[in-house]
TrEMBL record:
Signal peptide, first to last residue: none
Name of the protein in its database record: Haloacid dehalogenase-like hydrolase domain-containing protein 3
Region (Disordered): 170-193
Species for this entry: Larimichthys crocea (Large yellow croaker)
Family classification: Belongs to the HAD-like hydrolase superfamily.
Matching Pfam families: Hydrolase
Amino acid sequence: MQYRHYSSRYPNYGIAQGMDGRSWWMGVVQNTFSRCRVQDPAVLNTMAHNLYHNFCNAENWEVFPDSHKALESCSSLGLKLGVVSNFDSRLEEILRACGLLSHFSFLITSEEAGVAKPSPAIFDQALQKCGVPAATVAHIGDHYVKDYLTSRSVGIHGFLLDRHNKHNQRDIPQEHRLSSLEELPSQLQQHMD
């Protein structure tokens, strides 16, 4: 409930209101526990601080089994890989803890960019970091609007990762759908040829 409230009242970690990811999350956690009748400010602050920092630990994350192999295969094709994510500044630390950071040339979080997907502006920033035209870039994501449609709206080859076959939009050609990241290298190679 507090997450939805903060997301609505202070979108994208409250950047436009002068907040940052840390203060935003601290507020969400403190308000959540205060609604559970935890009233001691020191306890609320300690809980929020600990949750915020412990969130970066690798044991709190599950890396899908196909991730490492797909990233290694894409790198071996000579592709420059990056991350565009609606996330806060902890993403780099999380990717490092999970053993994934070394695969990426750049990261753009919505907190850093000052805009979140589905804004095309975050993809424009990614294209600037890539230094190549949109037509030579692919974006893989699991959200129909935020990832697939928005990336395609700026000329990027968007792919929808649909691990559980839950997206039933008819406007997505089969060759733009991935049920696993294992399919990604061959799909990208087809677009490179």
